[in-house]
Target: Probable nitronate monooxygenase
Amino acid sequence: MLNNEMIKILKIKYPIIQAPMAGGITTSELVSAVSNSGGLGMIGAGYMTPLQMRDQIRKVKTLTSNHFGINLFVPNKFAIRQDTIQSANQLLNPFREQLNLPPKDSIDIPDFHHVYETFIEQIKVAMEENVPVCSFTFGIPPAKVVSELKTANTILIGTATTVREAVENEKAGMDMVIIQGSEAGGHRGNFIDDKNRSLVGSMSLIPQAADNVRIPVIAAGGIMDGRGLLASICLGAKGIQMGTAFLTCIESGAQPIHKDIITNSTEEDTVLTRSFSGKWARGIKNTFITCMKNKEWNLPDFPIQNTLTQDIRKNAVSKNNKEFMSLWCGQSPRLAKQQSTKILIQSIMAEAEKIKSTM
Amino acid sequence: MLNNEMIKILKIKYPIIQAPMAGGITTSELVSAVSNSGGLGMIGAGYMTPLQMRDQIRKVKTLTSNHFGINLFVPNKFAIRQDTIQSANQLLNPFREQLNLPPKDSIDIPDFHHVYETFIEQIKVAMEENVPVCSFTFGIPPAKVVSELKTANTILIGTATTVREAVENEKAGMDMVIIQGSEAGGHRGNFIDDKNRSLVGSMSLIPQAADNVRIPVIAAGGIMDGRGLLASICLGAKGIQMGTAFLTCIESGAQPIHKDIITNSTEEDTVLTRSFSGKWARGIKNTFITCMKNKEWNLPDFPIQNTLTQDIRKNAVSKNNKEFMSLWCGQSPRLAKQQSTKILIQSIMAEAEKIKSTM
Model:
């Protein structure tokens, strides 16, 4: 069962995908180490310019000859309203003051048309560079994009948080689909359903999704070890995607303090917030999240709020101030270790084999 | 792995416990059918008088010679404040009007002392009747109660929604502990941690709990079939407890409309509410939950709110009106079937064996 169509389609040795965490975590070292260790390394390219993307793709190619992939954010329509931006800035200015940053009133933000153009440029780069695998979050790309990528033989992976979203991904021609359980760290991938409807635990979501699509289902959310891999397979998944487990690896570009906080946290320490980006995401609770809690329903949508909080997050990183960083993390931080990617993958496979042998 | 210390301690054939759903669902027919089919049937005695409890225990004994158990609610301190009751009644009176029920202003509610006395009476009955297994929700009984039950050789099972709660159960002398994931239907069993901290998905919660206690861990929440059983075992559990899967069985005392709604629902249809009882619980969204949504933080605690809504729920049942019933359900309704208990248990074990053989 560990040797199935998912690994055949992806041409990898083990059914393990490294989640494409955006924002500098998926260094070329991490991506290539995953692919060199038998998994599928993924570049989290959501926030990258097409140029940055091309640079990293080329870098990864020099470090591994195995399959790897990139992940892109499918742009969702958003409206820029100066009054909403102004009131969001009013909420953020006290934090800026605390961090000795200048206050802000308005902000220059690219409009939806521009964001969409960038997405199309990213797709072009992926095809020009012959990236073997392309995964998507926050939606399904337009049919034209899907068919172009298919013509280029790119393997396509969608993301779903409910059965309906999984079915839509299959209908649109995705080759497989990530099933994101409520345990998952970072951004919720929901695109049809609101946050509440999409907060389904993996124990429920995986089998219900597997029953309703024919493409391989890949489990994501809270999986950290051989136990989680084998459990996902039992539930009907063909493989797993892990974020937090790779985030704390030595090769990951996450801030050292982010790694330390995760490896010292418990399952009770994460919360869902939309204060950092305008989209719901799971991370370790800190001062920023707590202070914004009662205001988060009125914030601008993604990616506006994300752009607005950028100066705060960057400053916090430069000062190693954990209270104002986005400390994305799934619900299994007790199982996170700071170790090499190779050791992580090897121990997962060894543990899974050991459990299998005792069943 | 399916033949482990959990089934040895409980003297059952299969590692399956029927969740002790209170409020008439766990009929003697259901409890005995589970025990006669190789699982552990449980009487949900939380809302029963000691007399009702004794009657049902005796009835179950006539229907099975196998082990079975009862579940009790550990009383949590609550204060009766007439102003809170009055304002809660003001919220409920429009529903009463809609259902042609008389409005209410105040209500006679037993105080904490009385509730606690009833709990002690329930414990006495369990011991006098030599009930083999006793499980607890909403907390851990006082040390004196635990030691009396242990002297009587009662097997004790606690409930936990976080690792900390699991550890407390072990320290208090529980023989095993139910680990309730966020997928679970019905009442949240949290007693240390608030609802938000305790909403941890099973994929994360089971392995983290199993790593931190030595007593057997029993997975609960969203488990419906052989896939869920085997996944739970892979994650470190020794067995499973299922609620929704048994609720829709033929022998269950749940309202036929409740069963029908579950078997026609999806993973998107459940929500958490404290509007029915004052404690957070997961059920199918309906008019009552939706209307009370923005007011639920200010309601009286359990069991006060539960007593207040009793006339509404009873009337809704008598009229087969699904909009005002508490339709408890976990996050896997797509996997629910209306079938006999025996078929359910047999198909779970057959499916688990089949999956094992292909691993």
